Amino acid sequence: MLLNHEKINFLHLPTPLEYLPTLSKELEIELYIKRDDLTGIGMGGNKLRKLEYLLYDAKAKGATTLLTMGGAQTNHGRLTAAVAAKYGMKCVILCIDEYPGEVSANILLDRLMGAEVVLKKSDGRNVTTQYEELEAEVTKRYESNGEIVYSIPIGGSNELGILGYYECAMELTKQAEEKNLKNARVITTVGSMGTYMGLFCGLKNEKSPLSLTGVAILPFETDKDTHIMRYFEKVKDFYDLPLTPTGSDFDVEVDYIREGYNKPNPAVREAIYKMARKEAIILDPCYTGKTFAAILDMVQEGKIEKGETIIFLHTGGHPGINTPFHRIEMEKELIDGVTIL
After folding, report:
1. What's the domain count of the chain?
2. Residue 138 belongs to what domain range?
3. How is 111-144 classified by DSSP, letter by letter?
4. In terms of domains, do 91 and 178 share one?
5. Which of 1, 174, 242, 256 has the greatest number of CB atoms lying within 10 Å of its CB?
6. Are 204 and 90 spatial neighbours (Cβ–Cβ below 8 Å)?
7. For 35-63, what is each residue's pLDDT tens digit?
8. Both 85 and 139 in a single domain?
């Protein structure tokens, strides 16, 4: 067990594990959803589990400003802003991205909570290099005003951040046992990979009967197995984990990336509408909507067998439906149900 690291408790845990009866009947599987969209502050989401540990570390080091990075509509940025606001800190979110044309969705929420959002259009060079340069520039500006800056990587996905989902793996295992769920498979989105890696380490190291499948929502920059093993080795070395998996032990689907990261897609929108209309649960078009669309495809393709028990991890992110380029496509498809008298 790794959970001897300190954290600051601000979440509503455990989050519910709910049965989805209508979709279960329609898909001929036993479908449950883990509601990590209901984690509390800042409209909730999976990154808050990581931020409990990261915030403690930041406070222990005397930080007064949390700095993080991501796309213009980063959910992690929004939740970092929420934590900073709640604990009396400043927050700055760095985005190598285009200005979306309006202050809406997560950017609006970032500003509501007092965070500075720095948007810089990519110059075509390596994105990591661009982030490092922008981080150095902005950190220098904040430090010149007497701030102590604590930097958090994209998605909070570092060795410390994964503890949030190591803990979630234990929480899920207990809930599944209480509901007598046999041979259940957890399916989660894979982006920056901290959520997946935390779950993987927690389930394996704690000898949980639950299995795990990830759904990649963007292409890997390098060979998939190499990328995953490199991340795992960092975590293993940091915690001295007694695990020796190979690349094939990490079940991550790469067939459902569609057009790429956060790109509008009709199948993803249809999956969002289906979840909303069948179970009244709102998904987002970048992460959970794409993952649920993948689940629907996997049922059709036989990758998920009839009668199988699936636990879909809802990682939050629903403000993303108000991102301009997603909202416009939804408006076109949904306007016919609006009656104007």
Report:
1. 2
2. 47-156
3. HHTT-EEEEE---SS-HHHHHHHHHHHHHHHHHH
4. no
5. 256
6. no
7. 999 998 999 999 999 999 999 999 999 99
8. yes
Q: Indicate if 122 and 270 belong to the same structural domain.
A: no
Q: How far apart are CA 258 and CA 97, in angstroms?
A: 20
CB count in 10 Å sphere of residue 281:
19
| Cα R_g (the chain), whole angstroms | 20
Q: Report the 10 Å Cβ neighbour count for 168.
A: 26
What pTM was estimated for this model as a whole? 0.95
- 227-243 pLDDT, tens digit per residue, is 999 999 999 999 999 99
Do 201 and 333 reside in the same domain of the chain?
A: yes
Please say whether the beta carbons of 43 and 76 come within 8 A. Answer: no
> pLDDT tens for residues 90-117?
999 999 999 999 999 999 999 999 999 9
Residues 284 and 164 in one domain: yes
| pLDDT bucket at 2, cuts 50 / 70 / 90 | low
Contact yes or no for 45/75 (Cβ under 8 A): yes
- The pLDDT of residue 322: 96
Shared domain for 215 and 151, answered yes or no, is no
**Residue found by looking up tokens 């700055």 in the block:** 92
